[in-house]
Amino acid sequence: MTESNQNTRRNVRRLALRRRAQRQHFNFYLRNQTWTFLQNVATAPVSWRREHWILGGTALLLVVLAGIIMPTFASATRNEGAEIAFRTLALDVPPLPAGAQAEAGIAGLAAYGMDEPAWRIATVRAGQTLSDIFREQGLSPNDLQRALDTQKDATALRRIRPGDEFGFDIDDAGVLRAMRFDRDDATRVILNFTPAGVAEVATDRAIERRVQVAHGVITSSLFDAGDQAGMSDLMTLKLANAFGYDIDFAQDLREGDSFSVIYDEIYREGERLRAGDIVAATFVNQGKRYTAIRYTNAQGETLFYTEDGRPLRKAFLRTPVEFTRISSRFSAGRMHPILGKMRAHRGVDYAAPTGTPIRAAGDGKVMFRGWQNGYGNVVIVQHNGKYTTLYGHMSKFASTKVGQRVSQGQVIGYVGMTGLASGPHLHYEFRLDGQHRDPLTVTLPKEEPLPATELAQFKSRSAPLLARLKFVDTIRLARND
Length: 481
Known about the structure:
Layout: H1 3-31, H2 50-77, H3 104-114, E1 120-123, H4 130-136, H5 141-149, H6 155-158, E2 165-170, E3 176-184, E4 187-194, E5 197-204, E6 207-217, H7 222-228, H8 233-242, E7 258-268, E8 271-285, E9 288-296, E10 302-305, E11 325-328, E12 331-335, E13 342-345, E14 348-351, E15 357-359, E16 364-372, E17 376-383, E18 387-397, E19 405-406, E20 411-415, E21 425-432, E22 435-437, H9 452-480
Antiparallel strand pairs: 1-2, 2-3, 3-4, 4-5, 6-7, 7-8, 8-9, 9-10, 11-14, 12-13, 14-21, 15-20, 16-17, 16-19, 17-18, 18-20, 18-21, 21-22
């Protein structure tokens, strides 16, 4: 067979195979020309064909294989850190230096400081006694007696006031281990209770006086002006008391009156403890300027003085009671509200609630204490031989007795309406050499000024205070302009 014939036959065979493959591919595409993985759900219901099952199974198999192979691969590639080995060495403690045994007490105090007691704080309420507080804490009267027995002066424990604080360290069995209280503003006391006895530890507390300056103008009342100036009601009351001998704050106050005050406040360990005292002040009342400077004289008395060293305190208070109004003035004749006929009224009636304290107008001695017709319960006080004062219609007397000396401002009785009275008030009379004088207008005797030997020291101390008050007044006037 020639070579050409062989080539021809191979070509015929190749063409025949090609035609057969084309026919097979044509039949496959013809059979599957409408196949799709997602059918048209709008024209036919969802149904799985063989092709779907094949593709779904393949995908599921791949997911399972990935879940098995990937964690194993991650664990195989993780590099575990090498463990660190620790070793404990025993070290010898160096010996104590010479004389260290003497410091054992200091070490004990350090240990005590690390074991700070868990204090239960009890704040005193109105009407409470220390016995009541011990009972509330579940403590026995014997504990209280042991605390009192340790004190040479137990005033801080016997005379407690609302707001005072007491601390108690009590163990789980209810046994008192320690008690804490303030003996005064600057001293804190801790009592440690043991079976052997009670030990006291007293510590000093830092007290600081911070000076404040305030200025106010009267628009409605003194207390409102004090509040606007940033002063507490207690400090405003102290201001009124300082000038109370010269100014009647119930009658004399006018709109536009003004005051400037230098005062201090007490701080303990950085916290405000209470109001302090007025150091110096000026008050302008109806155009007249009054000055008050606090000073302790050679006799140890702390008083307010004028600029020239004369005490503001007078021999007599102008009004011996805090009153709401003057219900009847001094007069030669008035219609008596009870008797219904004209009679001289030789004193001043101050209307006030029943029980309001009545104070002695000046230093003196109780000359009479009892009942007099018309006056009801009455007290008469003798002052310096020629002056006497009378206080009538009292509801009850204070603890004073006839012949006892009383000091200015001391309570001698309480407002009432005994005797011929139509309402609770104080009937107050002022007599000079037995003659009645109008208490509202009588010229009261003045106190003697400081002696010359002390006056120079007073002026050197008061000069910077007066300069500061003048500066405050200057600033006020500049602002008004």
